[in-house]
Amino acid sequence: MGKPVKSRSIKSLCLLVALVAAALPQEAMAANDSAACTVRFIHAKHEGTAFDPKLEPLREQLTRPPLSSWKSFSLLGEQKISLHALTPTDFAVPGDHQGRLEFLGTVESNGKQRLRLRWQLLDGAARLMSTVFVIDDGGTVLQAGIKHEQGLLVLGTTCKLGS
Amino acid sequence: MNRATRDQLLSRLHDGELPEGEAEALRLELTDEDQQKLHALSEVDALLAHTLSAEADAGELDLWAGIEAQLPAAPAQNQSTKGRILPLIRRRTVQVTALLSTLAAAAGLVLLLRPAVPSNRCDIEELDVAGHNATVIAVSDDNGHETALIWFDHQETDEWESL
Predict the structure, then answer these.
(1) B152 - beta bridge partners?
(2) Residue B140 at interface with chain A, using a CB cutoff of 8 Å
(3) Predicted complex ipTM
(4) With an 8 Å Cβ cutoff, is A45 touching chain B?
(5) Cross-chain CB nearest to A57 (options B118, B142, B152)
(6) Phi-psi group of A14: left, alpha or beta (phi > 0 → left; psi -120 to 50 → alpha; rest → beta)
(7) Predicted confidence (pLDDT) per residue in A42-70, tens digit
(8) B159: closest CA of chain A, how far (Å)
């Protein structure tokens, strides 16, 4: 009677290994199927010298040319967005604009997964800007050019894999 | 030649201490009495050799005991110092190794837990703007990390066009 028990144990072990093996790729795929992004809306002005402490991670980028022409920076707001592959997500942008962010998938580079994203800035039906870019996991890209209340609107987008 | 001198010559002949020529000359003039004395000397030699061998075989020859007895007593302090030096070196080696390992682990931890620096190695694949100009600028920080800045000219509302 000991033999069937042993056989059952081996079968259970094999089943467990198979389940784990099947689960691992799904987990990896799930992680590569989504991205978490934070879009910061930054108001840059020529007046004043205030620098919003919440923008400290971007201080070096905001205080160097060409953005160093603006002297004060404040965070108007930020959007935290969970993206699923190939599903565009819209969000409001100061100045009655609309942002649309889409996670297009990952690109492997030197053994690391990078994010491929489409970023669109809309004004109603008009597209003010549309770009597709690839960044490192956790990377940031800045966009600027829209005038906003006697100043400039700067958009800082940081994305990482997983949601 | 008196007897004492004659006996000394015989003894030196027996021991092989005479020069070859002198020994040969002496052998030619040996008398019966001289021959008997030489024979007696040989017997005494054999007897002595046998007796010493028997004594050596009878007891274990402990050379170290004799040498050790004649050595000056080593100061106890020297032994304790000698005993301490090697462990001290070993302790230092272990301490240095542990210190280096700790530093390496700390450096790894710092690299792992350091705040995310906004850097992206951004690759722009597509860029369309509803304006006249668009520029991609790499903004470097103090560490040489670059962040991409997409700059596009702001257009007045009536200048926008649907892309």
Answers:
(1) B134
(2) yes
(3) 0.77
(4) no
(5) B118
(6) alpha
(7) 999 999 999 999 999 889 889 998 999 99
(8) 11
